[in-house]
Amino acid sequence: MAYRIPLSFPVFEGNEKCYTEQAIASGNLATFGAFINKFQNKLSKKIKTHQAVALNSGTSALHLAMVLVGVEPGDEVICQSFTFCASANPIVYLGAQPIFVDSEIDTWNISPEILEDAILSRIALGKKPKAIVLVHLFGMPAKINELMEVANKYNIPVIEDAAEAVGSKYEGKSCGTFADIGIFSFNGNKIITSGGGGAIIANNTELIQKAAHLSTQAREDLPYYQHLEIGYNYKMNNLTAAVGLAQLEKLESFVKRRREINTRYRNLLADFPGISFHQERSESESNYWLTTILIDEEKTGFSNDRIRSVLLNNGIETRFLWKPLHLQPVFKRAPFYGGRVAEKLFSNGLCLPSSSSLTMDQQQEIVGIIEKEIQKSYF
Ligand SMILES: *Cc1c(COP(=O)(O)O)cnc(C)c1O
What we know:
Layout: H1 16-26, H2 34-47, E1 51-55, H3 58-68, E2 76-80, H4 89-93, E3 97-101, H5 112-124, E4 131-135, H6 144-153, E5 158-161, E6 169-170, E7 173-174, E8 181-185, E9 198-202, H7 205-215, H8 238-248, H9 251-269, E10 275-277, E11 284-285, E12 291-295, H10 297-300, H11 304-313, E13 336-337, H12 341-348, E14 349-352, H13 360-378
Parallel strand pairs: 2-3, 2-4, 3-13, 4-5, 5-8
Antiparallel strand pairs: 1-9, 6-7, 6-11, 8-9, 10-12, 12-14
Bound molecules: pyridoxal-5'-phosphate (PLP).
């Protein structure tokens, strides 16, 4: 269904057309070509300190990251429960077992305390987790210092799922650069998009070379095709990289726009009891990929689903927050540590339209519809 005001719509107002025409004129649309290197170099420059390998999706980036840290059949991998399924699916691709951990209420991301409980419990049961997947959900940085301290204490590698946090910062540094390996996604509705795409980032050259090698079918550098290990067809292609490069050039302006949209929602909805926002901590700067609100039904008299359906009737797309993975039927047998933090966020939350191109008038309209609902239930 086409929405009049979609949740997160891409903006192509830069060099997308020019670069794709150049890529087509070059005749090279496959997994080598000038735009792939340009895209990787630009991305490395933006996030500083790290090198990047451009891939065909965020999911394949997570899969490769897990291969690189050595996840094998029968291993256990700890994963934030409150996230999109792609954070955990590659654990299963590798024949390993996901162990889900609840969020904390400040950032909505994996709780450092519960993470440590989970590690100790798994060790007591006889198996030390092979890796930890943490996520910066909706662009909001997790409590990275506390989480890395726990991971380092037990010497467990961390994979930083920054799929939603391209352009987010923690203590002034880019999200994705704190753990052993970080990943990004450039899928259709992320803050920048290459159509589909992803990247692995790391500051370890050997790891980056290994990722590049595995992503192109582990083909040896010989005049004939020779393979010493099983690889993947995961590299980004040149046409996609052309779009990605043009989008990357606009990243700062998109982050600025989405932050402005977030501020305006806050200002417009600030006075209504029962509606609250995801709060940034002093050390972090979210890209506010999506603005999210929590609706306390006891105070507002209406649920998140009520607002969703009223806005939908007006052609406006909103979305529930991610359903926690430990509550997903497909993961029902996976162990879970924690309480009901992620579950409550899921049942009260709503993502509001947050496109970089959202106009003031559109935002006023969205808020106006929510206000009408509020008035109905207050008076
Ligand atoms: C989008 C997303 C991914 C997967 O990225 P794709 O490019 O869609 O494969 C992984 N993790 C999170 C948290 C995401 O939002």
